[in-house]
Write a structure and sequence with these properties.
The strands form 3 sheets. Strands 5-2-1-6-7-11-10 form a 7-stranded mixed beta sheet, sandwiched between helices. It is built from 8 helices and 11 strands. The chain is globular. The chain is an alpha/beta fold.
Amino acid sequence: MRKKIGVVLSGCGVRDGSEIHEAVLALLAIDRNNGEAICMAPNEDYPETNHLTMQETGGKRNALVEAARIARGNIRDIKEVKAAELDALVFPGGYGAAKNLCNFAEKGAAATIQPDVARLLKEVAAAKKPILAICIAPALIAATLGKEYAPELTIGNDAGTASAINQTGSRHVDCPVTEFVIDRKNKIVSTPAYMLAGNISETATGIEKAVKAVIDLI
């Protein structure tokens, strides 16, 4: 029986949604570990960035519609997904994790969480099911679960982000790009990916290890 792994996307593109390499590498690792990815995203509009100039356009894009590009159309509105359907939950990085799924990029430790994301994340944590956060996504986990669970997490070694994570009640642990941190008590795994990676191979190595660790926790 294939394990059902929820993958929470936030759009399509590193600056205004999910980091595409991280999302695809996570999907590949899930499949290679005999898991079935259940892709989802919020059905909401968020500010658009031109990925050629890296400047905001003033326009907006719908996260669910954009994330459907990564999922090849096989995706659900996160509002409709329940923890009972899943064996684990994965959050790829990209600025969308810190701008769309929550506002950590703006508010730091005082971040508020998109309501459907918060509800599902809290359901999964309460059910003691594994969670994987990639790149900047551990900041989302910290902002949502920090006070109640005090999880151990990594975004690599960026001091400013680590400090903000610690202020949520979570504990940041420095970690090299090709490794991961595992909080066995809370079943939370995290890996730095493009917070540190100099190339896609380094990102792939960390994500592959982290996905296997999450599936082993199920």
